[in-house]
Batch of 4 targets.
Target 1
Amino acid sequence: MILTTDEAIQVLEAIRNCLDPRRVRYGADWRKDKALCMAIEKLKEDDQNG
């Protein structure tokens, strides 16, 4: 399955929204949250630069 940049960003944001906020703040999911944030930012930056 090939995704466009916008679709990939939507998928990553959906995954991030599914993380349990308590585990992000106090548990082991903060690394997942940080990695997803960085990936989303990078995709948005690459999309803007063309």
Target 2
Amino acid sequence: MSANVTGLTYQLALLTVLVAGAARVATGTIDVGVLVAFLLYVFYLIGPMQSVIQALASYQSATAGVARIAEALDYPAEAPHGPRRRRRSTRP
């Protein structure tokens, strides 16, 4: 779920920068090279942020797994299925 939200946020950020930059290029406020450079900076910024978000999601999943394992270990041990019988030897 968090991967979908992260991907959507990533795409919206790029789209916003691209639309705003294209508008400024159209009015002559900035050059195309400045827009490309700014987009590269956005890529460099968002990449590590996605890694951190993914690491946090993995940490939450691992924490839930450890809690389930601890819960399973808290159950009492099962008793054996009855006493074991020794074989009687048939020798006299």
Target 3
Amino acid sequence: MSLGVLTREITKPVPLRLASGIVNPDAIGFSRAPLHQAAGRETGQDRRRDHWLVSTPTHILMIATGRDQRGVQQRLWVLDRATRAHIEIAPTRPRDAMGSLPQGPETGPIRVHSLDLDISIDEVPGGTRLRVYGGRVQLDLRVGRPLIQQSLGTVVSHDNRSFDYVLSDLARPVSGRLAIDGRWEALAPECTWAVHNYSHGCHRRDLEEVRAEATGIGILASDSSVHRLGIRLGAGSGFLVDGVLAYDASTAQSERLEDGRIRLHGPRFELSFTPLSDAPADARGERRANVGLFAGWIEQEPGARFTVSGLTGWLSLPDAPTTTR
């Protein structure tokens, strides 16, 4: 799939498949809203993943649900920033989880339950409510949706039967309560952020790319003003500033530095990633990613460069990048 195809912007609702079951060629491209719709005949290879990363001053959380031919899955992962200790909760046996996921992002509630973990996600006025009960961890969060909030959706096709659709909803403010081992803390939206990643794929995903998402606060270099920032790298990259998306079809490059950081760069960004911990990248736990901190700069448009420091997110690399000094 040529990256040139990803320069085509989708501006109205479009089905992912035609009635015959083949990939809709009009769906290939990128969008600034959840415009791609599930349609046509699905196969046993179809899979859906719904993944949230929540960044608080004290913890990093990942809440994941999924559905494929083997059933539904769920997973909760929590990292303590100070001690680097983590909690991971998931059903101990395949098919232990029961529940349902909607056909598309933001189209219905998510309910996935097991003996170990209950996850409920609902679209509510002004945002999304996340409720999780998992033994040592409980949370009830409201993820706000600002009045200006674009997202980045991309569809790439490997042949006329297989595709990958990914929707990234970045830098959304979070309020609510989180309890670890019975100790509750209130979360304030000015310092707690969420990234929502929804994917729908058929057949094996092409992993030969750098993939990352991050959220937090950045500073405009020209006047030192503070802005809400989100970053998505992958099959098409996006930089969200105060809810407005700047899109870049170029591919991110990576290098591993001798001090353990990873350099990520492209025409519109220069970032370093400091890993904090290995973490699950999906509800089944078979795919892994690194959670950590991003620093450097991004460019929303020529002359509008933002300095970033300590943006929280995740990073997945296709293979070991080149090591440089």
Target 4
Amino acid sequence: MNSPNHSGRSGLLAGEQPPGKVPSLVELASGLAPAGRVMRALRDMFSWRFALLLFAALVVLYPLLWVVSLAFSGQQSLTLVQLPEDASLAQQLLALIPLPEQWSLSNFTAVLTEQPFIRWLGNSLAVALSTTLLGLALSCTAAYAFSRFRFAGRERGLMLFLISQMFPAVLMLIPLYVIVVQWLGLGNSWLGLILVYAITALPFCVWMLKGYFDTLPYEIEESALLEGASRWMIFTRIILPLARPAIAVTGLFAFMTAWNEFILASIFMDDESLYTVPVGLRFFVSDYASEWGFFAAGSILVSIPVMLLFLALQRFLVSGLSAGAVKG
């Protein structure tokens, strides 16, 4: 006779109802997850943090919307909408929204055809690219020397680079003018402006690259030295390819330093044919005439190369900025 199985229940007791199916945790989570996400999203949207972020975004984007609207308005006045004398409060509030009455490309066409904007753009491109190449050549070699070699004055040199970043560039305006214009005779020339831009960007570039070179293991260089490689071969064929993220970020900074600078270019340049874009845009807004539409259109055009560079180098930005920040 077979003994009853006591390891589990093989049947139902008298009067006991069959148990229902117990839902699993996965099923509960899948059923409650959409509702939970909606409630969490609504709670975040009505929180003070979201309101603060929304206000900050409006403060940043509102001037940009004005620039875009002025550029596409086809007019030169800052007033995009003409209000009647008896305008209501609602009409006045709507006038604060930067939307032109009609959209037009006439400002862009006039800037590109009636003004020497293309020449200014070419001048800025030549100066910015030359500054980037010269700045990278100087900063890469200097940063590698500060990172790998121990020599007299090393700590003082790094400290002087750091101290030079504490003062605004305007303080160096008079010494740079005396050195570049009076001593070297490079006033009103691209070479003088490129030297000034490269020297101005050099301290930041050296510190940026040195921090990245410090993170590269020295054992790689020791192995190359044992194989008979020279220091220059190690630097050009091993270190520089490994430091591409930091070089990309440093080059972008050097390019933007020369591309957006106005004060030095307006002082060192006297010939209109050698003007860069920031100096050329100044003539659209003066004491006698203000062509705000041309100014806004030129500002949008001059920002396109920088945006393209950011898109092209965005995969290097995070790693290049953060890798040299932590030592170890």
